[in-house]
Amino acid sequence: MAIIDTIRDLPGPPFEAFRYPHEYAIDLTVERAIVPEKHVDAGREEVRAGLRPGSKRGPETRASLRRALRRWCEAEEEDLDAVYTTLADKYLALHSITKP
Known about the structure:
The chain has 100 residues and is an all-alpha fold. The protein is built from five helices and no strands. Helix 2 crosses helix 4 (61-76), helix 2 (22-31) crosses helix 5 and helix 3 (37-50) packs across helix 4 (61-76). It is elongated, with a radius of gyration of 17 Å. The two termini are 30 Å apart.
């Protein structure tokens, strides 16, 4: 039982205040397919349109998801800040990160 008790008592990663709520929310959208694909595609195209012509670099995933999340919130008439906070709180819960 000592091994099981040790594993049970392992703390989650430390809370990083500078990442809350935006970065934690985007972490969750990277891990799981939460944002509908049509908004992800539109966000990717928006980022791609901002790249220099002839750029061989593709759109960055996190930037695309930020734009996709904004588009989805606009389409559903949801408060973007509330959605970011809800996603971040879910991420913290799933990863056993304690917010002070």
